Amino acid sequence: MIEILKNFPDNVVAISCGGQVTKEDYEEVLVPAILKALKGHDKVRLFYETSVNFTGYDPGAIWEDMKVGLEHPTRWERAAVVTDVDWIVQTVRLFSFLIPCPTKIFPPSEESQARSWIIATN
After folding, report:
1. pTM
2. What are phi and psi of 95, to 5 degrees?
3. Mean pLDDT, range 88-117, rounded to an integer
4. Which of 63, 66, 78, 88: CA 20 to 30 A from 72?
């Protein structure tokens, strides 16, 4: 399940992933939120966190995740990843050369720093 998080500027798409994330979560929640943000801004930011009940991604969701990042490569300004899920941390590090914007990984204990970084004006 993907949930849109509140209390972020409208140029930040902020999500929390919990339970099992599906292709439908991307199609029905994340992609519309990104398209809405792109209508109002030349560049958007992504705040991504996993909740304590996160169990993983369905195969279709993994494909959708890759597509989301690559469909608008010049429109991403930065991304903050807040997680303690080791395989996500390793995947972000391994494929950082494909991520079209500066990306930082934060442990859950540094969520407030991640929020500050994603909304910073510099």
Report:
1. 0.91
2. -105, 20
3. 92
4. 88
122 in a domain, yes or no?
no
Q: Indicate if the alpha-carbon torsion angle 10, 104, 56, 50 is positive or negative.
A: negative
Domain count, the chain: 1
Judged on CB neighbours under 10 Å (0-12, 13-18, 19+), 38 is middle
Residue 51 sits in a domain of what CATH number?
3.30.750
Q: Which two tokens stand for residue 121?
A: 């004006």
pLDDT in tens, 42-87: 999 999 999 999 998 887 776 666 666 667 778 899 999 999 999 9
Residue 108: domain span: 2-113
What is the SS3 assignment for 103-115? EEEECHHHHHHHH
Give the pair of three-digit tokens for residue 114. Answer: 């991640």
